[in-house]
From TrEMBL:
<dbReference type="InterPro" id="IPR009003">
    <property type="entry name" value="Peptidase_S1_PA"/>
</dbReference>
<comment type="similarity">
    <text>Belongs to the peptidase S1C family.</text>
</comment>
<dbReference type="Pfam" id="PF13180">
    <property type="entry name" value="PDZ_2"/>
</dbReference>
<dbReference type="Pfam" id="PF13365">
    <property type="entry name" value="Trypsin_2"/>
</dbReference>
<keyword id="KW-0472">Membrane</keyword>
<dbReference type="GO" id="GO:0004252">
    <property type="term" value="F:serine-type endopeptidase activity"/>
</dbReference>
<feature type="transmembrane region" description="Helical">
    <location>
        <begin position="23"/>
        <end position="44"/>
    </location>
</feature>
<keyword id="KW-0645">Protease</keyword>
<dbReference type="InterPro" id="IPR036034">
    <property type="entry name" value="PDZ_sf"/>
</dbReference>
<dbReference type="InterPro" id="IPR001478">
    <property type="entry name" value="PDZ"/>
</dbReference>
<dbReference type="GO" id="GO:0006508">
    <property type="term" value="P:proteolysis"/>
</dbReference>
<keyword id="KW-1133">Transmembrane helix</keyword>
<keyword id="KW-0378">Hydrolase</keyword>
<protein>
    <submittedName>
        <fullName>Periplasmic serine endoprotease DegP</fullName>
        <ecNumber>3.4.21.107</ecNumber>
    </submittedName>
</protein>
<keyword id="KW-0812">Transmembrane</keyword>
<feature type="domain" description="PDZ">
    <location>
        <begin position="281"/>
        <end position="363"/>
    </location>
</feature>
<dbReference type="InterPro" id="IPR001940">
    <property type="entry name" value="Peptidase_S1C"/>
</dbReference>
């Protein structure tokens, strides 16, 4: 009897054709680990390549654009160099000492060939000794203090030196906000430092951190001004003096510098050169803006009148019959609408002259216009400039 034949394919061994579950699991785990570990690196490389390509494109675009505008940028750079060369020979450094032995320094600008130099009042105020260093290195140890006006912080000194180069006056009234301006001076004793900026505002009358008077306006710029710049020139694109640098607004206001407009500085220079001091008209009244309530009480329209908040005794205002609480409507032919402008108009009126003043006051409960004639007095002179 023979055994039946065996079919080798009839009963294959277990897992002969299938995969090992453990091996599959390990392979999947390996793939996951590769993705988890290498994924961020690959993603980072992709992002870096993408960012680099974008930045490279930006560099190429910027390079092309700069090529097109470089001529204009070079023109601006050239303008700065030319402005510095034009005005620097006229800028001086002023060194001072006082009775307490304190020393200080400021700047100034030569304004004519006779040796007159304009600077800030506070640079020379109370000084017992002064010497001036010219742009070419010459030193004048005996400058003459011609005079000054503390109210607007300007002074005039004179040196006895030949061959001076005077700066040219510009027109501050022609400046517009955004115009380019340069400052030259000696901040922290660094002679002939040039800084650059724009006109930020005009007719700046008062700000926290500065002292001003009722008839002074400033040019506001973002030009870097530091101790030692005081009295130096602010110049325009033509290198002409459009202001005298006088103040920075505290330590917390960065980029806020103030300059006396050249129109006022030039007028002051001419008066000081002729008379040695400034004589301004004086009334003896403290002018205030009208509130809406008071304006209605006096039956006035917006923009009409300036309140006489206080009238000092023994002054031209009191002698003319002006009373506290009156509203000034006119000064000569000028309509009064702003305390600042009214004070300017009074200051510009010749001392000793007669001025006509129209005021409105309440008479028996009724707003009544009154004409007054006033003899203009002289503003009290302040303390001596030097010891």
């Amino acid at each position: 009897m023979s055994l039946p034949e065996q079919n080798p394919s009839a009963a294959p061994p277990a897992n002969a054709e299938g995969s090992n579950p453990n091996l599959t699991f390990l392979l999947v785990l390996l793939v996951v680990l590769v993705v988890v570990l290498a994924g961020p690196f690959l993603l980072g490389r992709f992002q870096y390549a993408n960012t680099k390509a974008r930045m490279q494109a930006e560099v190429e675009v910027a390079t092309n654009q700069l090529t097109k505008v470089s001529a204009k940028l070079n023109d601006l750079s050239l303008a700065s160099r030319l402005v510095a060369k034009r005005v620097s020979p006229s800028v001086v450094s002023i060194h001072r000492a006082d009775m307490q032995g304190n020393e200080g320094q400021g700047s100034g600008v030569v304004v004519d060939n006779e040796g007159y130099i304009i600077t800030n009042y506070h640079v020379v105020e109370g000084a017992t000794g002064l010497h001036v260093i010219l742009a070419d290195g010459r030193v004048d140890y005996e400058p003459i203090v011609v005079g000054g006006d503390k109210r607007i912080d300007l002074a005039l000194i004179k040196v006895n030196q030949p061959d001076l180069i005077a700066a040219e006056w510009g027109e501050s009234d022609s400046l517009e906000v955004g115009d380019l301006v340069w400052a030259v001076g000696s901040p922290f004793g660094l002679d002939h430092t040039v800084t650059f900026g724009i006109v930020s505002a005009k007719q700046r009358r008062s700000m926290t951190g500065i002292q001003s008077n009722p008839f002074q306006e400033f040019l506001q710029t973002d030009v870097a001004i530091n101790p030692g710049n005081s009295g130096g020139p602010l110049v325009d694109l033509d290198g002409r003096v459009v202001g005298i640098n006088t103040a920075i607004v505290g330590q917390v206001y960065q980029g806020v510098s103030l300059s006396i407009p050249s129109q006022l500085a030039r007028e002051t220079y001419l008066k000081l050169k002729e008379d040695g001091w400034i004589e301004r008209g004086y009334l003896g009244v403290e002018p205030h803006m009208l509130t809406d309530l008071r304006r209605r009480h006096y039956d006035l329209k917006p923009g009409e009148g300036v309140l006489a908040a206080k009238v000092s005794s023994l002054t031209p205002a009191e002698r003319a019959g002006l009373r506290a609480g009156d509203v000034i409507l006119k000064w000569n032919e000028h309509n009064a609408s702003d305390p600042f402008l009214l004070t300017q108009a009074i200051a510009d009126t010749p001392v000793g002259s007669k001025a006509q003043m129209l005021v409105r006051r309440i008479v028996q409960g009724v707003p009544t216009d009154v004409d007054l004639e006033v003899t203009v007095g002289a503003a009290p002179r302040l303390e001596r400039l030097t010891q």
